[in-house]
Sequence to fold (106 residues):
Amino acid sequence: MFLDPDQLSALFILANYANPQQENVCAPWAAACQVIGIFGYHELRREHPRALIGLTDISARNTVRASLGKNPMPFTAPRPLYLEMEQNVDSSFLRRETWRELRGNA
Fold:
């Protein structure tokens, strides 16, 4: 998923919402395509797969700026973590006033 900074913050929090180790998101050093593809695939081998923040490669950011804009950041969530995050939406901050205000939907 390509996200703006507010959305990235929200998914970062949601990925850590129900897991006490609170290290469920990682930003590995790698080329942009490696984080989205290869690193994301390798996370599936972990007992507790982590989400990944990518596109920290400045040459890639410069290249994709014309098509994606200035602020998008990719967030890769392996399916097991994605399903856990999805189950937690209704009881999370996403249903609260602060999130609605931040998104301009108050």
About this structure: The chain has one domain: 2-102. The first strand starts at residue 2 and ends at 3.
